[in-house]
Amino acid sequence: MVHGGAWAIPDDLVEAHLIGVRNAVDAGWRILESGCSSLDAVEAAVVVMENDEAFDAGRGSFLNREGKVQLDALIMDGATLRAGGVGCVEHIANPIRAARKVLSESPHVYFVAEGAERFAKEHGIPLCKNEDLIIPREVERLRAYQDLATSEGQEPFAPEISHDTVGGVALDRSGNIAAATSTGGTLNKAPGRLGDSSLIGCGCYADNESAAVSLTGWGEPIMKLVLAKWSADRVASGNLPQWAAAEAMNYLRDRVSGHGGIIVLDSQGRFGLAHNTPRMAWALRTTGQLDSGISRT
Ligand code: ASP
Predict the structure, then answer these.
(1) Measured distance CA(233)–CA(118) in Å, rounded
(2) Spans of all domains in the chain
(3) More reliable by pLDDT, 152 or 260
(4) Which among 165, 181, 183, 186 is annotated as catalytic?
(5) Is the pTM of this model over 0.90?
(6) Does domain 2-296 have CATH number 3.40.50.2000?
């Protein structure tokens, strides 16, 4: 199951989002069919969306205040609780691949900035120029946003801003679940700002004994609630993933006036999806079901 952001996705962007999430779920499914792990599947699905400029991940991400792309990603294995994260990387087109290397080839869990890039390079991940990750649409978007902020004397209200972070959760034949989330963060963010997406338990979490979870949305409120882990804990205490997903969105709104979207999957294959934004892009595939959509609140 994958998501490609939760916000007021405009009608003219719906098709691009649907194509993107369908391609991603197909890629993940092929990996599962070939007998590989849920970890491989979520990595492959997220790579597809990082490579798709429709989303705020990889090339085509939002720009920070200084006009640079700065990316964050996390991947987590529900069987072992091994996790790998990278934050504030500026020269990696597929940060989820770097995160996977951290998970599988480092005793550490999280690398940031230059150290993350050095680690990635040493482990065979090619580095690119930051300009290679920037597209004209985003240069224009940042300019328009900064002009508006200057003319209004304040930052535009966050819920009006898009949240196109991508993520996936998967269950494999061995009964193991995994989760991955990748993002360019929020538009006009301060350099060095990290959101929820790549922080363990905030925008991403996986434990076979509870659930695999990936979120998108306004990162600061989400991380204050450690919302991915909060949701997984609700599943561990006997609730259905759909209930946990819906409750997480209620909690986010009621406790910290936050907004976003969430997908949740447990190791029995029960899943849930919820958002408190106008729309959310998602796709899901099981042995008996292939579905995708832009759900509305
Ligand atoms: N959650 C991301 C962040 O705050 C943004 C998003 O989901 O669009 O970095």
Answers:
(1) 35
(2) 2-296
(3) 260
(4) 165
(5) yes
(6) no
